[in-house]
Write a structure and sequence with these properties.
It is a single chain. The relative contact order is 0.10. With about 375 residues, this protein is mainly alpha-helical. The protein is about 65% helix and about 0% strand.
Length: about 375
């Protein structure tokens, strides 16, 4: 535990150098501190105002790069409140705000260890497995180092699953909603609870989650909120691509037949949500999700398949899989947490051009080990499990 904390404190006074996102985090936080709704104002419009009261506005704007200022904020409300806290306590300096956010992320990781160990014990697994997450280099670099808030989302997510394991399902629903309000990814698993609980209980579970989310959304709500937010979110399905697996394979085949890349990503982006919904429904009704172990395994595969077909898989996305996988019998996500570093090649290129050969190695390794686990290890004793 101490070693993991020391590794995190090494980053404490350093600004991230592999991500520009923190500039937008601070920008959004400054807007909230000045009572402006980050879902209603575009940075490239605000920066033209002569009386803009945001601290370090020009430096933050320049740091965002060319893309982010063109879009409304896509970060959920609880994440926005953390941004506001960092702006409020950061002493009107970028580094001060970075330090506040970093402390929040470190505390969240410590919380993951606390509730993760408890959940592992309740699932009859070794509590030491949590350190596959806590000491993972990808977790250290992308969360503490580059200030991605997957760790805060996962803190609430694991806390919620722990509460489920001790039959405190109403409290679990509230905490699960908090997880969604940091990052939207846990929404993907909501249908699985339909078969985890009985029907009436699942409806009440969803109602508590929905009510909690509405309460957190209300301070930010306006008539334009839904249109702005949904427009920004939809871009991730139809405009962006990075470190893609199956999509890159389809793209290479399609371009060989003279398909236009911009039309392909647009069409693919429309199909991906439909495929994802189908996969979620299959795991909802074909898996025995009443058992918490099976429920978590279903979550692992639903999220894995979603990432496999997604046109955008940033390295920090894999961190969700790292944590979930230690509560199951599968370990391909741990291999992916190492192989995903191959995608960093793009960061070394002036135009962020990807090396398809390196991506092929990454995904062949992950798919190969996944197939090995599904076929060869299916009837054997799970590895890394408590006796």
């Amino acid at each position: 535990m101490g070693t993991g904390i020391i590794f995190r404190l090494v980053f404490l006074l350093a600004e991230p150098n592999l991500s520009q996102d923190f500039y937008r985090f601070i920008w959004d936080g400054e807007l909230i501190v000045h009572l402006k709704n980050p879902y209603l104002y575009l940075p490239n419009v605000l920066i033209e105002q002569k009386d803009l009261a945001i601290a370090n506005a020009q430096e933050l704007y320049n740091g965002m790069g060319d893309l982010s200022p063109k879009f409304y904020s896509n970060y959920p409300p609880l994440n926005q409140l953390i941004f506001a806290l960092s702006a409020l306590l950061g002493g009107k300096t970028i580094l001060g705000s970075v330090i506040v956010m970093r402390i929040v992320i470190i505390l969240a990781d410590i919380g993951i260890v606390y509730f993760g160990r408890k959940l592992l014990k309740n699932l009859n697994r070794s509590p030491h497995l949590i350190f596959w997450y806590f000491l993972n280099p990808l977790v250290l670099i992308e969360l503490t180092g580059n200030l991605h808030f997957e760790g805060v989302m996962l803190f609430f997510f694991i806390w919620s699953l722990y509460l489920l394991s001790v039959n405190q399902w109403k409290s679990s629903a509230i905490v699960y909603a908090l997880s969604i309000m940091v990052k939207l990814v846990p929404i993907l698993f909501l249908p699985l609870f339909l078969t985890h609980f009985k029907f009436k209980k699942s409806i009440l579970f969803y109602t508590i989650i929905g009510t909690t989310m509405v309460v957190l959304l209300l301070p930010f709500y306006s008539p334009e909120f839904y249109a702005n937010y949904s427009k920004t979110i939809s871009l991730w399905f139809s405009n962006f691509e990075f470190n893609a697996g199956i999509y890159n394979g389809i793209k290479q085949i399609a371009t060989a037949y003279d398909a236009k890349p911009w039309e392909l990503i647009n069409t693919y982006g429309k199909i991906t949500p439909l495929v994802t919904i189908s996969i979620v429904l299959l795991f909802t009704f074909l898996s025995k999700n009443k058992n918490l172990n099976t429920l978590i395994s279903s979550m692992l595969f639903v999220l894995s398949i979603y990432y496999f077909i997604s046109p955008t898989v940033h390295p920090w996305y894999v961190i969700f899989l790292i944590l979930v996988t230690i509560f199951t019998h599968y370990r391909y996500s741990l291999l992916w947490s190492a192989a995903v570093f191959l995608s960093y090649w793009a960061y070394s290129q002036p135009d962020f051009k990807e090396h398809l050969g390196l991506l092929a190695i990454e995904y062949i390794a992950v798919f190969g080990f996944l197939i090995y686990e599904l076929i060869i290890l299916r009837n054997k004793k799970p590895i890394f499990c408590k006796n």
